Write the structure tokens for this entry.
Amino acid sequence: MTRSSISMFNRNKLKLGIFSANCSGGMAVTKAPERWDASWENNLKLAQMADEAGIEFLLPIARWKGYGGESDFQGSTLETLTWACGLLAKTKKITVFGTVHAPLVHPIFAAKQMATISHISEGRFGLNIVCGWNQDEFEMFGIAQREHDTRYDYGQEWWEIIQKIWTEKAPFDYSGRFFKMHGVAGEPKPYGGRPVVMSAGSSGAGRTFGARNCDFLFTVLVDLEKGKKDVESIQGIAAGMNRAIDVFTTSYVVVRPTKKEAVEYHNYYTKEMGDLPAAEHLMTLQGLHAQSFPPEAFQLFRERFVGGHGVYPLIGSPDDVAGELAKISQAGFIGTTIAFVNYVKEFPYFRDEVLPRLERLGLREAVQRS
């Protein structure tokens, strides 16, 4: 397995990943009856459709407790490592990430889990590192959450230990600020070398952690002008460490034959059927305990939190959506995640209408679809 043979490192200028399908509601905080049911059957069907369509990756959210409201947004979720393991066994080319909260999983256990999945998938597994933010969940675990920047110091030690387990042939000792360990060993090593690694961050500490350790970093897109500056800043941080990193953003999609239809549906599920108490709880937790979103996002884009967990909206006809994706590429992003109100029902239209437009724009290569 070489890097070039992994979907995340293919030649497409604009790479796409499907985000949060393991969670009930997906990214849409809505009471609409057609909202996403994150059953295993639905996830498997979606994964196989995405694999056949040439989508690069699937990215889950590690969620242990929902946000309440009438919809109990993200109240039912599939654990990400076992989810990834199952999907990788049933797909052929797509990369499937596991999202791991470093403070909640011991590094020796995490290293063994992920090496096992790497072998099952012959190198198609990816790791998304989260250093912690959701206070509700930490209280449920009975674990004290560290100060924001200190979380990344902990995450750095956690990740260093895992990498040593994956590379050292002899048992080793580790003495750090957070971990004191003796005689650490782990076999087998991951299939074909270290899995692809990503993290998300909008804060200085988060971006520095990603630039130091990851292949890809995700950051929230507020607007295209700011997004371009964010990409340049993140890549500048990595260059200062003699590293290169590509930057993704996140988005949600409402695509219909006409822009009018897309806007009307967006208004329906966000304004008529939006689960405002759940969205408010989500925003409160993000504002108090995380720096994933810049402060202005909470004031300017409240609607985005109902529409798609606060990420960038792509709303319109296939031409509109393809055009916006082209602008995201022009801003310097290597790609974006996408989400739908109902992934299985809506992805086929995106596949059939938007992907060919991206191919004609030279942003993606055509794939043979049965």
